[in-house]
What we know:
By secondary structure, this protein is an alpha/beta fold. 26% of the residues lie in helices and 24% in strands.
Amino acid sequence: xxxxxxxxxxxxxxxxxxxxxxxxxxxxxxxxxxxxxxxxxxxxxxxxxxxxxxxxxxxxxxxxxxxxxxxxxxxxxxxxxxxxxxxxxxxxxxxxxxxxxxxxxxxxxxxxxxxxxxxxxxxxxxxxxxxxxxxxxxxxxxxxxxxxxxxxxxxxxxxxxxxxxxxxxxxxxxxxxxxxxxxxxxxxxxxxxxxxxxxxxxxxxxxxxxxxxxxxxxxxxxxxxxxxxxxxxxxxxxxxxxxxxxxxxxxxxxxxxxxxxxxxxxxxxxxxxxxxxxxxxxxxxxxxxxxxxxxxxxxxxxxxxxxxxxxxxxxxxxxxxxxxxxxxxxxx
Length: 332
């Protein structure tokens, strides 16, 4: 058995005294022992979790003072944007800059929540197609493979303003054939099986990544991640998580859970509009029950409920907005 006692030590640290005894088949294998563990005032890195930084210049050189902030605040993850040209062939310099960005993060013991994109503005200003993206993914394969040790997760990116899958010139992000093909290439060409991807809005996974026309068990096939055994399968269901780029900014988290996204489904019945908060049914037929909130009789938005169900198994990221503008809408 294990008995623990807590007590104050000298200074600000705490003492944890653990008394253990080892028993097997009713026979004592060792006498009780007292061990004292003292806390430390030192920063202890907590890899791949916790607060993160954000860099807009991942492929253009991260400033030294920003890298220093990672150490100052004991951060182990940095969301890192890499803006690509929309040329057919990426230059050797562009590809080398990808490796340089990862090398900078590696030098301070940090992993990247990495996102490729073309457009820095809304609406987008650059012309590119799914074929452009798929070609670039193939060209980036070697650079990503060589730096996979410094990658926490890849954000689906590429399409739309800031790679968020909205507001592009070609509207490619609304074509589920294109988005599914891009994520498939990211999962199975750009990344090894032990790395995962995030999409901006939960319904994007249901409607823009997973495909209902494929047979059960296909790696891009439809489904909901619900068990640890499912999470071990090398499939889109198991390897696609979520970015909430408007965490706690408004009631709908800056559009993350807004009705326009809920009703956007590219395929019939992909998502059903429902008010928030309300007695909500599942976002689609594979979710058996709504998720009850802490307030009795109220239920979560179906998209957030979907993310909650899958949260033990996939990476989740929330971007906290930094500034409340004159219209009380949070922006960064």
